[in-house]
Structure formats: structure tokens, C-alpha cells
Design a protein that fits this description.
heterodimer, A: 337 residues, mainly alpha, two-stranded antiparallel ribbon, 14 helices, disordered C terminus, B: alpha+beta, three-stranded antiparallel beta sheet
């Protein structure tokens, strides 16, 4: 053991490489161990010691907030969300393929002929759209990676999927616009959660069947209400002439969403987690509310910069806030008197 | 899904905490002793491992002390940590038993005193 001030300064410089939150919590503790381990008379850190501390600091930075976080419920909610969001995306896509909205047979509509063998929204014809198929396959890869707990691989796959979807998705008219909205909202918040949380491996420890039920209901609500939007916008509005039908779908969507919220409250799911879900659904909800109240359908169809701000500013700000929590200093623990 | 085998350093850290709570430097010296000098943990490696073990709820902070103006934080095994260590020890023991038994059959000279 040594008390050399030069050596202590050297160690403190090395410790500066750790994330600020870790330094506040463990900096003095690690310094004490380094000083206790040093041979008497040593003035500078040894090369091997320096490499070990630098490597450890790098791993800490890549790992995100650790267990010392004072705000454990928030960290857990992020971890859970980083696991659940990719699964949710995949589930909504599966529902869109498995349960299409079929137009009423016999409806005399000249535009229906143009749709030939696809008188429906969604369904298996979606799989013939390469962009959709590739995106769903990529989402399945992301889902598998988060289930395996591979946070950084999942983040890379998510970024690639989002880039491809945003760049290519808008050129496909058969993909329901709300689906694009939901997906984009999920991409934004999920990426932030993957970076800032303890990771999907921690999320795997927290997931339970109640959460699964709430998510299935939420996915079903999102899926059903895509019809409401699609029957009011081109080309759906040319094909659907029965407004009550869309009203029924809208009502069904609301019932499913309310059921999901009620169960979440009754089962006391983490309010932080519900907040993350709310941020994820924001673009979708604002679009649906806009159309349902008779507003313009151009919010997404021909979006102005102001439209894009209304749709995505809250999720982007929320994601930014999530990332800030990863680097914000934690409150120092008080020593016992 | 198959559970991954525990890293040796992790196993030794948990073993060091099996009987009593210890601070960082105490864990380092104990691990060196347990491993017969073969494993020498450095501070960075130790605290990366401790952070992960706390995250997995295998260890927890027991208490904190100030000694010679330096902070000492003591860690202890949690019940989950004890259970995990016991499982891993049993797994290693079972594997070692099989290995020694087979060596006893084919190479009695390598099996040592295993009967």
C-alpha cells in the first residue's frame, strides 16, 4: 500500500474514463483498492493496471446504467421496454397479415375492379410486397436478438431495419399508413431504451404473462384501428362505402385499448413502462384522433414540416430524455454516520 | 434455453463472499488465495464483475466504512447469489467426478487419489 500523491493523481486521471454516474458511486472505492494494491514507492500506475481500468471503463460505458442507479424502477421499465417493443412490432405485423380487412362483397364500386384479386386491406398479399416482407423479416431478427439478450446486435439490426423502412416504406400504398406510424414511433423509443437501459436480458427477468396479455390487447387495438384510417384515406375511401363499418372497427379498437389500460392499472404494471408505451403510441394516436375528428388526412399523406413536428417531436424528445438518464449523474449515496 | 457456464473469476468472487461480506481489496486477496495464486484480479476487472453481479442481484452492498480516509464498501451474497453459487459448484463437482472417474479407468496415474 502507498500514499503517493502522484500515484493517486494518476489513478484519478484513469478513473475519469468511467461514466460519471459510476464514478460518483464507486470512484473513491475503486481508488482505495488501487492504492491498496500498489507496491510501496510506486509513483505511476503500471501499464497493465491502466489497461485494465480503461477496458473496464469502456465496458461500463457500453453497458449503460448499472445497478447502482438510484432510479431502479425507471431502469427496469426501460429494460422491459427494450425487450417488449420489438416483439410488439412483430405482433402487429403478424396480425396485419393474418387478419385482413375484407371489403363487403357485392358493393358496387368501379374502383374495386382495379384491385383485382386483392379486395382487402392487409392479408397475405402484403407478403408479396418485398419491402414489407424484408422489413418484417428484419423485425423478426431484432426480436430474436432481444430475446437472446444481445443488446448491441439488436440495436444495430433495429437501426438497419428503421433506415430501410423509412427510406423504402412510403413508396408502398398497400401498407397501412398507421402501421408505418406505429413502427416509426417504436423504432425511435426502442432504440433509446436499448442504449440507455440495463438491456433486454434484464427485461427478460421482468417479463410475465400479465404483461403479455396487455401487450396483445394493445397490439390488437392498434391493428384494428388501422382500418379506420385506411377506409378514410386513399385508396380505401374509394372502396368502402359503409361508414358504420368503420365506426364499428373504431369502437372495437377503443374497447381493446381501454381493456389494455384497465388491466395495466388493475395489475399494477410499472407506470414508467406505461409512460414508455404512451410515447411509442403517440404518433399513431394523434393521427387517429386527427382523422376521427374530421381533420385533414394529409397529416401523414402529405405531411408538412409542422405535421412531422406534431407527430414525432414528443417521441423524439422522450427518447432524448431517456438517453439523458443514461449519462445523468446519480445521487451519491450517503455514508452511514 | 441452456444457461451459460459461470466464468471462473465470477465463481471465485462469489466464493470469496460465501462465508462473510468483504470489501474490494479483501475480495482480491481472497480470490488470489482461493485460486492458489493462479487468478489475480485487478481493480477494473473486479468492479466490472461486481457491477454485473449487483445487476443480476447475486450480491448486494452490506455496509460502508471509512478507513484511513478511504471508502470501503462491503459486499455480501444475496440468497439468489448463494443459490447460484451452490448450483454452479454442484455442476462443476459433477463434471469433475465424471472426468476423474473416466481417468481412473483409462489413466490411473492421472486420476490421483480418486477412487
Amino acid at each position: 500500500m502507498t500514499d503517493s500523491p502522484d500515484l493517486e493523481r494518476g489513478y484519478r486521471r484513469l478513473l475519469a474514463c468511467y461514466p460519471r454516474a459510476f464514478r460518483r458511486e464507486h470512484g473513491e472505492e475503486v481508488l482505495a483498492v488501487l492504492m491498496a494494491s500498489a507496491a510501496p514507492g510506486r509513483k505511476r500506475p503500471r501499464l497493465a493496471e491502466s489497461a485494465d481500468v480503461l477496458w473496464s471503463a469502456l465496458k461500463m460505458r457500453l453497458r449503460g446504467p448499472g445497478p447502482a442507479s438510484e432510479n431502479r424502477p425507471w431502469a427496469d421499465a426501460l429494460a422491459l421496454f427494450s425487450l417488449v417493443a420489438p416483439l410488439f412490432l412483430l405482433l402487429v405485423d403478424i396480425l396485419n397479415v393474418a387478419l385482413p380487412y375484407r371489403f363487403r362483397p357485392g358493393a358496387r364500386n368501379p374502383f374495386a375492379r382495379d384491385f383485382g384479386i386483392h379486395p382487402q386491406i392487409g392479408g397475405f398479399p402484403l407478403l408479396s410486397v418485398h419491402i414489407f416482407t424484408i422489413t418484417v423479416a428484419a423485425e423478426a431478427v431484432v426480436a430474436v436478438l432481444v430475446l437472446l439478450g444481445l443488446r448491441w446486435a439488436a440495436l444495430a439490426a433495429l437501426a438497419a431495419t428503421a433506415g430501410y423502412w423509412v427510406a423504402a416504406g412510403r413508396s408502398i400504398p398497400w401498407i397501412p399508413y398507421p402501421l408505418q406510424l406505429i413502427t416509426t414511433g417504436v423504432f425511435i423509443v426502442a432504440a433509446a431504451a436499448l442504449v440507455a437501459s440495463p438491456g433486454p436480458r434484464r427485461g427478460r427477468q421482468l417479463v410475465n404473462w400479465r404483461l403479455g396479455v396487455v401487450l396483445v390487447l394493445a397490439a390488437a387495438a392498434a391493428y384494428v384501428s388501422t382500418f379506420r384510417y385506411d377506409t378514410m384515406t386513399f385508396p380505401g375511401r374509394l372502396l368502402v362505402r359503409q361508414p358504420p363499418t368503420t365506426t364499428v372497427y373504431l369502437a372495437g379498437s377503443v374497447v381493446l385499448a381501454v381493456a389494455a389500460v384497465v388491466l395495466a392499472v388493475v395489475w399494477k404494471l410499472s407506470p414508467y413502462f406505461l409512460l414508455l408505451l404512451a410515447a411509442m403510441f403517440w404518433p399513431y394516436a394523434i393521427q387517429l384522433a386527427f382523422v376521427s375528428t374530421g381533420g385533414s388526412t394529409d397529416l401523414l399523406g402529405n405531411p408538412t414540416p409542422l405535421h412531422l413536428v406534431a407527430l414525432y417531436l414528443p417521441p423524439v424528445l422522450f427518447a432524448f430524455g431517456v438517453l439523458l438518464t443514461a449519462v445523468a449523474p446519480r445521487r451519491a449515496r450517503l455514508l452511514p454516520s | 434455453m441452456a444457461q451459460r457456464a459461470m466464468q471462473e473469476a465470477t465463481f471465485l468472487i462469489l466464493t470469496a463472499l460465501a462465508t462473510t461480506s468483504q470489501h474490494g481489496y479483501g475480495i482480491i486477496t481472497d480470490v488470489t488465495q482461493i485460486s492458489g495464486g493462479r487468478v489475480r484480479l485487478r481493480a477494473g476487472t473486479l468492479y466490472t464483475a461486481l457491477d454485473r453481479l449487483r445487476s443480476d442481484e447475486l450480491i448486494a452492498v452490506d455496509r460502508e466504512e471509512i478507513v484511513d480516509n478511504r471508502l470501503r464498501r462491503y459486499y455480501r451474497l444475496t440468497p439468489k447469489g448463494s443459490e447460484t453459487l451452490a448450483d454452479e459448484a454442484a455442476r462443476l463437482q459433477a463434471n469433475a467426478a465424471v472426468a476423474l472417474k473416466r481417468l481412473n479407468v483409462s489413466r490411473p496415474d492421472l486420476a490421483g487419489g480418486a477412487a
